[in-house]
Amino acid sequence: MQIQAGRERPGASRQALVTGLLADALASVTPAGRAPELLDCGGGSGTYAVPLAVAGASVTVVDISADALATLVRRAGEDGVSDRVRPVQGDAESLGDLVPADFFDLVLAHGVLEAVDDVPGAFAGLAAAVRPGGLLSVLVGNPAAGVVARALAGEPAAALAELRALDTPGTRVGPDAVERLCSAAGLAVEARHGIGVFSDLVPGAALDAPGARAALVQLDAAAADRSPFAEIAGRVHLLARRPG
Fold first, then answer.
1. What angle do CA 110, 190, 18 make, to 5 degrees?
2. What's the confidence (pLDDT) of residue 70?
3. Which domain holds residue 161?
4. In this structure, is the dihedral angle defined by the CA atoms of residues 70, 76, 82 and 84, taken in order, positive or negative?
5. Is this model's pTM higher than 0.90 or not?
6. Which of 216, 233, 213 is nearest to 225 (CA)?
7. Does the residue 63 lie in any domain?
8. What band does 1 get if pLDDT is binned at 50, 70 and 90?
9. Which listed site, 136, 138, 178, 231, has its alpha carbon 20 to 30 Å from 242?
10. 121 and 80 in one domain?
């Protein structure tokens, strides 16, 4: 199944990396004889949902914003996949009332957990939606990256405050917290990648040099699963499988 990157250009290289990871994930859960069923929680205007539908998946998008869902419907129509995209208005914390449990081959929760009040409750709904043998894809901000960014910006006091905040339980939802949630829900984390390891650190002016943007894309991709670089990425992508 070929997935084309979405149209939103800001952060396009980072999106392309996540799109590639989703393509590999989708290949591992696509059942024989039918289109894969996907759930994009917080999927908004369809950055991932529409390309996934174009690739042949049946995609349910849950989002609280009626405006975002209207954009999703328009984009799906423009790409000829209206019959494969189902918009549902609602929030992540009510997911269990909006979609069936044990049903989806791949569930996306990209930037969702940082935006909810009840993180354990929302995560429980996401995990319950994954069918046995299916995958949960989580994209979450990395609090450690904030420390590095503050220090490089010449704000050591702010960096120190960010560093100390990492020791306060429940302050932020980061990749380590997601791994703990996965373990508690019985999901096995199979992959963890840093997204945009260097994209937020390289000055924009430096990208005007010939070949610099392409080199940055390759650099980010090469560092995505390589320690210690992946640990300082601004966002982290995790794939967790529900035992089948």
1. 35
2. 96
3. 143-169
4. negative
5. no
6. 233
7. yes
8. low
9. 231
10. yes
